[in-house]
Amino acid sequence: MTKKSTNTTISFVRLVWSIPISISLALAQGISLGSKLAVSVKTYIRRVNKSLVFLIDSDMHQPDHTKASKAWGLKSLWKGLQLTWKHFAQTLRRRRSSADITQPDYFQQPTGAVTLQYPREQPVVPTRGRYKLHNEIDDCILCDKCARICPVDCIEIESIKFPVPIGKTSNGMTKRLYAAKFDIDMAKCCFCGLCTTVCPTECLTMTPEYDYSVFDLAEHKISFANATPPKEAASQC
């Protein structure tokens, strides 16, 4: 490929990206897309056609197989651009509704914009979503299985053993350990769910709460430990 042909190709690629950038800037500045969009599209098509003419003229001296390859590439690129603008026009005409994936009509919306205006619009989260971890500390027996199986060491546990039982869990297991520390660092969590699988009392679960962003990373470290040990057990020690 000659230097002239290379420069022309680069110019064509720049023109391809000019219209999406122009529309993005118009949206960012709050400009109405109405008539501006029509003018931009017409200008865009005119420039692309002109670039195609330049490319063909610059390739007249190339071998036949090279010309055929470039022609096929330009044809493929043009078809791709047509498909892109077709879907872009569809997003301007209608929007998809935010539906739960369990609804029977979830896949009945083949066209339309899918972008949610977050946080004014919230996605529909499945009730069995596996996001933020929660520990029901009253049912926890401090077995330490969750901390040992965690691949990223996001669970920290410190327990104090009592000589007498300090209570029972909801499934009838006896508790003899007091949780002096039970911290989960959600900034480290990889959401694998292994900790919830090995929990014998099923006190550690993954909740559907997905939005827990904070300004301070330290706030992602959540403590589930009891403030004070049970009075009955402490009096028997």
Write a structural description.
The chain is α+β, with helices and mostly antiparallel strands. Helix content is 41%, strand content 12%. The strands form 3 sheets. Strands 2-5-7 form a 3-stranded antiparallel beta sheet, with no helix packed on it. Strands 1-6 form a two-stranded antiparallel ribbon. A two-stranded antiparallel ribbon has the order 3-4. The longest helix is centred in the first third of the chain and has 30 residues, at 64-93.
- For the termini, the CA-CA separation is 88 Å
Order of helices and strands: HHHEHEEEEHEEH
| Poorly predicted parts | 28-35
| Class per helix and strand makeup | alpha+beta
Quick take:
This protein is α+β, with helices and mostly antiparallel strands. It contains six helices and seven strands, in the order αααβαββββαββα.
Main attributes?
single chain; 237 residues; alpha+beta; three-stranded antiparallel beta sheet; two-stranded antiparallel ribbon; 6 helices; 41% helix; 12% strand
Topology:
Layout: H1 3-28, H2 34-58, H3 64-93, E1 133-135, H4 145-149, E2 155-161, E3 167-168, E4 174-175, E5 177-185, H5 194-198, E6 204-206, E7 221-223, H6 231-236
Antiparallel strand pairs: 1-6, 2-5, 3-4, 5-7
